[in-house]
Design brief:
By secondary structure, the protein is of the alpha/beta class. It has 27 helices and 24 strands. The strands form five sheets. An eight-stranded mixed β-sheet has the order 15-14-12-8-7-6-23-24. It is globular. It is found in: Cell membrane.
């Protein structure tokens, strides 16, 4: 079983998938090994080949390249519960069909200003389809891996549509139930109740998610194994309690009845929650634990976990691409490690405290490896929230939902559950304000290995030799620094922020961020992408935040950066338009300074007639190699820049205005004479950036183009005269090239 699991998990680290012929040859080789009793190797080959075949099947189900960016009429059924935020309806469509092309089985779509869709409805839609693709940055969420794990073969934007047939089936019933829950009076926490009962997190605001993340309590408001396990445990305990009191019928063996009722309750809760992958994983684990409790306790406590791991990965090998898979199995393994083999029973309060201590310390290496925030307040927050939600809110919410058909009773229970949630969020918000989540920088492998070993030592029972050495092994977590540029050189990162711009410039002891990415409603690129990337790269503070101008695609994420880390100075070409930020200074033409042997010079056109022309231009020179960052200046501002007398020759040029037709004039290119140009843009952007004529002008000068769509986040060693390195070029089998 361990060999089979190893083969299935190897998929997670593959840069590319083996050829199909080899995937079919490996099981045959495994069968040939069986007569020689090489069972572990044979099962390893079986697991590896099955995982790769499943992954290849998901890749083959992606949208055909020739359909990327095209608009098609298609028809399909809405699955799951549509999510409505800021006037945008996001939903998944299954079994989509089109007369003009073959489509993937599952699509993820967005409809701006669309009608109120219901799960189970069939729609005919005009959709602009795109192949699955996400932003690629240091220490950021891998959207492409998530899409593949969900087996979503295309994303798209709905242009128009018409309803073909009304909702039907289980998903329709769940949607109606969601509407009932959202309509009750629950002290403003109706969305949180829908999350607990149905697994629908669309009713939680960005502020709610931030509080949950800062306090390490996200798992409590999203249906997980904890909730399903709690319900199963309550049902099991109910029958066990009756049997202990002598109230259970003697002719019925209480143990198999308790296990059967507990598993039925887990399945029922899973169906209510939509039976998504995490819920299915939890039901498998609970089913195997109950089977072990009924018949196989003599085989040890680790067997059910190993069996659950095998079953989950056989059913869905792509589960290993999701962080939740590693965290859920890691949490169960930690609890087994902490509570098995101990002499005597602990009081309940000591049991709860030790469980939170184990989760905080034991999951630390996993969180670091997955690039997830670490909540220092998690043990305290969970010590309060776990019993609060598990023993009070969830039973009241489920019972209230069950009794909704009865006048007043169901709504009264939901009102009480909502009140408890309201007070819980008030407490968690105070804890989050006191101690927010911490996103550490990316550790070298040797440092991570020491931290993992230290955490393991500290989790061992008291009295184990050298256990206290674990505290020493945790020190690299706080004292390991990422490699910094040498004196006279600068490290440049052009982050992948879609249709926007964010460029980090770091010298030996200083950091400057040029623009901060866009913000679209509740989705703040500064908070979601730029800030985690800065933390992952080891940037603890910014000496300067330079916002070229006030357009949203350049300044939208600036306030999130100010909230998330110390910013000593803010400079902008449109300081007056950024009055909402703290102490914004105006960009000055000809201002120059030096950090660690690297020279910075700004330029600003006093005669600018609009925001684009007012962009603050930054020239950076390190050891004779130069970089020119131009914001969104147009050809008129380019001419003013050339007339200013500044020496604009540069090795690297940020293509003005994302490669717009109104910029990158022939005069500018001739004066700068760049050997490479940088283009930051979103794929299939509505502006057509970069324009074909602009690309042709760069190519005519033999200028190499570095486009974030092709390269992802780009790293440059300014002063070393080397090529740029794009993160998208790092091989991942699920990543679109």
């Amino acid at each position: 079983m361990t060999a089979l699991v190893a083969g299935l998990l190897l998929l997670r680290v593959l840069p590319v998938l083996p050829p199909v012929w080899l995937l079919w040859l490996l099981p045959i080789l495994g069968l040939m090994l069986l007569p020689f009793r090489s069972y572990p190797l044979a099962l390893f080959l079986f697991g590896f080949s099955w995982a790769c075949i499943s992954a290849q099947s998901a890749l083959d189900d992606r949208l055909a390249p020739q359909l990327d960016g095209r608009t098609l009429w298609l028809q399909g059924r809405v699955v799951g519960l549509p999510d409505v935020r800021d006037g945008v309806v996001r939903f998944q469509l299954q079994q989509a069909r089109s007369r003009r092309a073959e489509l993937p089985q599952r699509l993820r779509l967005a409809w701006h200003g669309g009608p109120a869709l219901r799960g189970g409805e069939t729609w005919r839609l005009a959709v602009r389809l795109k192949r699955p693709r996400g932003l690629v940055n240091p220490q950021s969420f891998d959207y492409e891996a998530w899409l593949l794990a969900q087996r979503i073969g295309a994303t798209g934007t709905v242009k128009s549509g018409q309803l073909v047939s009304a909702a039907s089936g289980l998903v329709s019933w769940r949607d109606e139930l969601r509407q009932r829950l959202l309509a009750v009076d629950a002290h403003g926490r109706e969305g949180a109740l829908a999350a607990l009962v149905l697994g629908d997190g669309s009713g939680l605001s960005v502020a709610d998610w931030r509080v949950l993340q800062d306090t390490g309590t996200v798992h409590l408001l999203v249906i997980s194994g904890q909730h399903i396990g709690l319900l199963a445990g309550l049902l099991y305990g109910f029958i066990a309690g009756l049997a202990r009191l002598g109230w259970w019928p003697r002719q019925w063996p209480w143990l198999p009845c308790a296990c059967a009722l507990a598993f039925a309750g887990a399945l029922g809760y899973g169906m209510l929650a939509g039976f998504e992958v995490p819920v299915r994983r939890a039901c498998v684990m609970i089913g195997l634990v109950l089977l072990w409790r009924w018949r196989f306790r003599h085989l040890g406590v680790f067997l059910p976990l190993l069996m659950a791991l095998v079953v989950v990965l056989l059913l869905e090998p792509l589960a290993s691409l999701q962080a939740g898979f590693w965290l859920s199995f890691g949490a169960v393994l930690l609890l087994i490690l902490i509570f098995s083999g101990r002499l005597g029973a602990w009081p309940w309060w000591q049991t709860l405290g030790r469980a939170q201590w184990a989760m905080a310390l034991g999951l630390l290496p996993l969180l670091l490896a997955l690039g997830l925030p670490v909540s220092a307040s998690g043990p305290l927050a969970n010590l309060i929230a776990v019993p609060w939600v598990g023993l009070a809110v969830v039973p009241l919410a489920l019972l209230g939902t069950l009794l909704l058909p009865l006048p007043w009773l169901g709504e009264a229970l939901l009102w009480l559950a909502g009140g408890l949630l309201k007070w819980l969020f008030l407490v968690l918000a105070q804890i989050a304000t006191w101690l927010p989540a911490w996103l550490p920088e990316t550790l070298p492998f040797w440092a991570w290995l020491l931290v993992a070993l230290g955490a393991l030592l500290l989790l061992l029972p008291a009295g184990v030799p050298l256990r206290s050495l674990g505290w020493v092994l945790l020190l690299p977590l706080f004292y390991t620094e990422t490699e910094r540029p040498v004196h006279g050189q600068a490290e440049v990162w052009m982050l992948d922020v879609g249709q926007g711009l964010a460029v980090l410039l770091r010298t030996r002891e200083h950091s400057l961020l040029y623009d901060a990415g866009p913000r679209f409603g509740d989705f703040d690129m500064g908070e979601r992408v730029v800030l985690p990337s800065l933390r992952g790269l080891g940037v603890a503070q910014l000496d300067m935040l330079l916002i070229s101008h006030a357009d949203n695609d350049h300044s939208g994420g600036a306030r999130a950066i100010q909230r998330g880390m110390e910013v000593k100075r803010v400079v902008s070409g449109e300081a007056a338009a950024l009055a909402a930020m703290h102490q914004v200074e105006a960009c000055e033409a000809g201002r120059s300074w030096q950090w660690d042997g690297v020279r910075f010079t700004t330029w600003h056109w006093a005669g600018a007639a609009n925001g684009n022309q007012a962009s603050c231009v930054l020239l950076v020179e390190a050891a004779g190699e130069r970089l020119l960052l131009t914001g969104d200046i147009d050809s008129s501002a380019e001419r003013a820049l050339l007339d200013s007398g500044i020496d604009v020759r540069a090795d690297w040029l940020l293509a003005p205005h994302h490669g717009s037709r109104s910029s990158s004039s022939q005069h500018l290119l001739a004066a700068v004479a760049p050997r490479a140009a940088l283009i930051s843009r979103g794929q299939h952007n509505p502006f057509g950036h970069p324009h074909a004529s602009v690309v042709a002008r760069y190519e005519a000068q033999s200028t190499q183009l570095y486009d974030t769509v092709e390269y992802g986040a780009l790293q440059i060693r300014l002063g070393a005269f080397t090529q740029g390195r794009g993160l998208r070029k790092r091989a991942r089998f699920w990543r679109e090239k």
